[in-house]
From TrEMBL:
<feature type="signal peptide">
    <location>
        <begin position="1"/>
        <end position="22"/>
    </location>
</feature>
<keyword id="KW-0732">Signal</keyword>
<protein>
    <recommendedName>
        <fullName>Lipoprotein</fullName>
    </recommendedName>
</protein>
Length: 218
């Protein structure tokens, strides 16, 4: 049964001061934690490995809270923010999502480029190193709240493209997809007029060949 709009808004408003990305971690703990996805996993430092393979294998366990639907973000265009409210079946699944987000955020903040063959992820990394958005993840039992807030329209449109791509593919278990076409469209848009040259330069200096078996998202 779908969660009605007022319930969803209520959950987000309760934690409206959080800025987040979805995240997950290994089992254990008391099921209640909050962490900055770019700097920790609720204690002990940031994860040193990606959990993307785990998430792909367990994708069916992640849904929009209160529904059986694949997770999808809610967008607030006027405030350059987006949020995810995701239900899992176990505390381990929730924690591993949190850990994956923490790993990705930390890697980018430290100059790393996860999925360096994907222009959307490279553009995300550029915005992260420029401190153009913030992310925070809150875990409560089997529920994960992820919120991201950008400082400007260009960064927000890239976050939005990323969120829409992930909700359409990754939560179906398909991680062999290249979101470069979505990045190119955003970078070419009016929102990124001022940043276009810097983003394209960043990407050109780091872009690697697309691995075998990866398909462009069209």
């Amino acid at each position: 049964m779908k969660m009605n709009k007022s319930m969803a808004v209520g959950c987000v408003v309760t934690l409206c001061s959080l800025l987040a990305l979805v995240g997950c971690g290994g089992g254990g703990g008391n099921g209640n934690s909050t962490s900055n996805a770019t700097g920790g996993n609720g204690g002990g430092g940031a994860p040193t490995e990606s959990y993307i393979d785990y998430l792909a294998s367990n994708h069916a366990a992640y849904t929009n809270t209160g529904t059986a639907e694949n997770p999808s973000a809610r967008f607030e265009d006027t405030s350059y923010s987006l949020s995810w409210l995701i239900a899992t079946q176990t505390a381990e699944q929730a924690e591993n999502l949190q850990k994956h987000i923490a790993f990705m955020g930390t890697a980018m903040a430290n100059g790393g480029n996860p999925r360096e063959w994907d222009k959307l992820f490279l553009a995300d990394a550029y915005m992260k190193t420029e401190h153009r958005y913030e992310t925070r993840v809150s875990v409560s039992g089997h529920n994960v709240l992820v919120e991201k807030v950008a400082t400007d329209a260009c960064a927000y449109q890239l976050l939005k493209a990323h969120a829409m791509g992930v909700s359409g593919k990754f939560f179906e278990g398909n991680i062999k997809v290249d979101f470069s076409p979505q990045a190119e469209a955003v970078i070419a848009s009016e929102a990124c007029t001022t940043d276009r040259s810097a983003i394209e330069t960043y990407i050109a200096a780091r872009l690697k060949p697309v691995p075998k078996g990866i398909q462009k998202n069209t």
